[in-house]
């Protein structure tokens, strides 16, 4: 169970996706990009734009219900990617590594990249931008919304420092 949360803004996500694309430039060209849905779709689109990739495929793995992990199942196959040769697989993050392991079994020849990596899953990704601790739950911009926080003088929590 996560003991802390890290909020990623749209700006930060875009910067991190561009940083990852820069890391991947030496591996060009790719035949296409495979996004692990759903979390990998926006990072994959940003990276495909930076690398000039027009061919995009998806693989859908279902394993989490909120923060609770179950057995992973591929509910949509990446048929256009064959065994992954020449393809770049993109996800938002690796946590336990369960999703990445299953996708790598399905696409053994692909290069795997994600924005954020927790220690347990780090070795399952070929590339990542930032490591976060295992007990941190990353909140992506599509998971969150800006909220009104009452001023301290009105009895509000410390919205800036403690949020
Ligand atoms: O390394 P793991 O422990 O497998 O966790 C990482 C996976 O979990 C999240 O996806 P999720 O299953 O929540 O689905 P979503 O992308 O559709 O939100 C995240 O987007 C990764 O794909
Ligand atoms: N949003 C989100 N989904 C996850 N799936 C596995 N770990 C995480 C995480 O830290 N944040
Ligand atoms: Mg996911």
TrEMBL record:
EC number, as in UniProt: 2.4.2.22
Keyword Magnesium attached: yes
Pfam families: Pribosyltran (PF00156)
Binding site for xanthine: 95, 138
Subcellular location: Cell membrane
Binding of 5-phospho-alpha-D-ribose 1-diphosphate, residues: 38-39, 91-99
Transmembrane segments: none
Any GO MF annotation of the entry: xanthine phosphoribosyltransferase activity
Alphabetized UniProt keyword annotations: Cell membrane, Glycosyltransferase, Magnesium, Membrane, Metal-binding, Purine salvage, Transferase
Names of required cofactors: Mg(2+)
Catalyzed chemical reaction(s): GMP + diphosphate = guanine + 5-phospho-alpha-D-ribose 1-diphosphate; IMP + diphosphate = hypoxanthine + 5-phospho-alpha-D-ribose 1-diphosphate; XMP + diphosphate = xanthine + 5-phospho-alpha-D-ribose 1-diphosphate
Cell membrane found in the keyword field: yes
Database matches in InterPro entries: PRTase-like, PRTase_dom, Xanthine_Guanine_PRibTrfase
Topology term for the membrane: Peripheral membrane protein
Residues reported to bind Mg(2+): 92
Residues the entry annotates as binding guanine: 95, 138
Domain of life (superkingdom): Bacteria
Family affiliation: Belongs to the purine/pyrimidine phosphoribosyltransferase family. XGPT subfamily.
Known partners and oligomeric status: Homotetramer.
Function per UniProt: Purine salvage pathway enzyme that catalyzes the transfer of the ribosyl-5-phosphate group from 5-phospho-alpha-D-ribose 1-diphosphate (PRPP) to the N9 position of the 6-oxopurines guanine and xanthine to form the corresponding ribonucleotides GMP (guanosine 5'-monophosphate) and XMP (xanthosine 5'-monophosphate), with the release of PPi. To a lesser extent, also acts on hypoxanthine.
PANTHER family in the cross-refs: XANTHINE PHOSPHORIBOSYLTRANSFERASE, XANTHINE-GUANINE PHOSPHORIBOSYLTRANSFERASE
Listed name of the protein: Xanthine-guanine phosphoribosyltransferase
Gene (UniProt): gpt
């Amino acid at each position: 169970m996560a003991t802390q949360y890290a909020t990623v803004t749209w700006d930060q996500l875009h910067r991190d996706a561009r940083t990852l694309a820069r890391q991947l430039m030496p591996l060009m060209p790719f035949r296409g990009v495979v996004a692990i849905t759903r979390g990998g779709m926006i990072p994959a689109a940003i990276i495909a734009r930076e690398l000039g990739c027009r061919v995009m495929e998806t693989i859908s793995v279902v394993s989490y219900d909120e923060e609770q992990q179950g057995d992973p199942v591929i509910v949509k196959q990446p048929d256009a990617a064959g065994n992954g040769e020449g393809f770049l697989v993109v996800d938002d993050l690796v946590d336990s590594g369960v999703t990445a392991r299953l996708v790598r079994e399905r696409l053994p020849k692909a290069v795997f990249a994600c924005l954020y990596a927790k220690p347990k899953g780090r070795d399952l990704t070929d590339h990542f931008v930032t490591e976060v601790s295992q007990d941190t739950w990353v909140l992506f911009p599509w998971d969150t919304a800006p909220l009104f926080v009452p001023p301290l003088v009105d009895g509000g929590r410390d919205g800036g420092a403690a949020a």
